[in-house]
Design brief:
Blueprint (H helix, E strand, L loop, with lengths): L10 E3 L4 E3 L2 E2 L4 E2 L15 E2 L3 H10 L9 E3 L9 H16 L6 E5 L5 H12 L4 E6 L8 E2 L3 H13 L4 E5 L9 H14 L2 E4 L9 H7 L15 E4 H8 L10 E2 L2 H8 L12 H6 L4 H10 L8 H10 L7 E4 L4 E4 L5 H11 L2 E3 L18 E4 L4
Parallel strand pairs: 2-6, 6-7, 7-8, 8-10, 10-11, 11-13, 12-17, 15-16
Antiparallel strand pairs: 1-2, 3-5, 4-9, 14-15
Helix pairs in contact: 1-2, 2-3, 4-5
Length: about 375
């Protein structure tokens, strides 16, 4: 029996962006989806807020900041049904007509019809920055149930021709899509049209271990701890990324969404990735973007205790103890705080945030808690 839907907040903070979720529930049935244990897959989408109410909630929310990227409809696929598509175009038009000028991203695996393409382009012309993520990783209909992969591939040239900024989202990495021939089939197509690729391993949240081990039985090995890893990768995929074929040498490829968005928005890194092993060894970042980070990051405005006190009070923690290392821009909280609050602190103040883990946390802390990639030698 499917679980009853457990809706997420309409406005929520994720590790890379401010999530805007006025419609929740997806009719598709992707086996790895993080919405599955919430009862939000194979579900009729539920409208929780009108476009107008969504904008009001956004501007009034304690997490809102004009520099944050907005990710729309992360608890559904907004292109999946006529209802969600109509809500999407109305929300984009409302954003375009408003004073909100946060960059907006939209993630989909579904066909993007002409009216949505037109809506995106007219709001771009009104000054709204819209970036589309096409989630395409070479998995088949046995895992991504309900997805038309031919239509998904056709999105790439259509959006490229329309001048819509496009990120290829290659995730998750599973044994089923780790064969070099599968990777090449995906990448040869996506790199023709996308501005960059974000490659993300499998994320295992605390409530979804069985869901993922059903897809990848090796992860049930008691000697492994996939839930504390930043991400989990088949060795084949990991090695391919680190020995990138020459034909992709000029295609930007990132393992961090924050860096991909910084590249797309011509911004320096604010997520503490610059000069880390991920920056230096995992991300294939264009020279101009590396120069942007190298020159801008030393000029960042220093963060003070006053800044931290003010923002902690704004998000509801006025008396939370902490220590701030100004030189390293590292904030260490003295008591557990919800992961979404820590993400918001990190993004708004451009800090690395460390905190005791809340045992009731439902999501993966990943790099925020120092998690590292876990590489698995998959069995034949």
């Amino acid at each position: 029996m499917a679980p009853q839907p457990a809706f997420e907040p309409v406005i929520d903070q994720h590790d890379t962006w401010l999530a805007v979720n006025p419609v929740q529930g997806c009719p598709k049935g992707c086996s790895y989806c993080y919405l599955k244990d919430l009862g939000l897959t194979r579900a009729k989408p539920t409208v929780l807020a009108t476009p107008e109410d969504t904008l009001t909630q956004l501007l009034d929310h304690r997490y809102y900041h004009p520099d944050l990227v907005l990710a729309l409809y992360t608890c559904t696929d907004a292109l999946a049904t006529p209802t969600t598509r109509a809500h999407l175009t109305a929300l984009l038009d409302a954003l375009g007509a408003s004073r909100i000028r946060n960059p907006v991203c939209l993630i989909t695996k579904c066909a993007i019809p002409d009216d949505v393409v037109s809506c995106i382009t007219r709001n771009q012309q009104a000054g709204l920055q819209v970036i589309v993520y096409l989630s395409y990783s070479g998995l088949g209909p046995d895992i991504e149930q309900g997805i038309d992969h031919t239509a998904l591939r056709a999105n790439f040239p259509r959006l490229h021709a329309a001048g819509i900024p496009l990120i290829h989202y290659w995730r998750p990495a599973l044994p089923q899509n780790s064969h070099p021939a599968v990777i090449a089939h995906v990448m040869d197509w996506a790199t023709r049209y996308a501005d960059c690729t974000v490659a993300v391993g499998t994320k295992v949240k605390p409530t979804a271990l069985k869901q993922i081990t059903d897809l990848w039985p090796q992860l049930a090995d008691p000697h492994l701890d996939p839930q504390t890893a930043d991400s989990v990768w088949p060795r084949t995929t990991w090695d391919w990324l680190h020995h990138l074929p020459g034909r992709y040498a000029h295609h930007p490829l990132f393992q961090t969404n924050a860096c991909a968005l910084a590249f797309m928005l011509a911004r320096p890194d604010r997520a503490g990735v610059h000069n880390t092993p991920t920056c230096l060894a995992a991300n294939r970042c264009p020279a101009a973007q590396r120069d942007r980070c190298r020159h801008a990051i030393p000029e960042q405005r220093p963060v003070t205790e006053t800044d931290v006190d003010r923002h902690l009070a704004k998000i509801g923690h006025p008396h939370l103890p902490y220590t701030l290392n100004r030189a390293t821009r590292t904030l260490v909280l003295g008591a557990p705080a919800p992961l979404r609050d820590r993400h918001n602190l990190a993004q708004v103040l451009a800090l690395t945030v460390r905190s005791p883990q809340d045992p009731s946390e439902r999501y993966w802390p990943g790099r925020l808690s120092g998690g590292q990639p876990l590489i698995i030698d998959t069995r034949p």
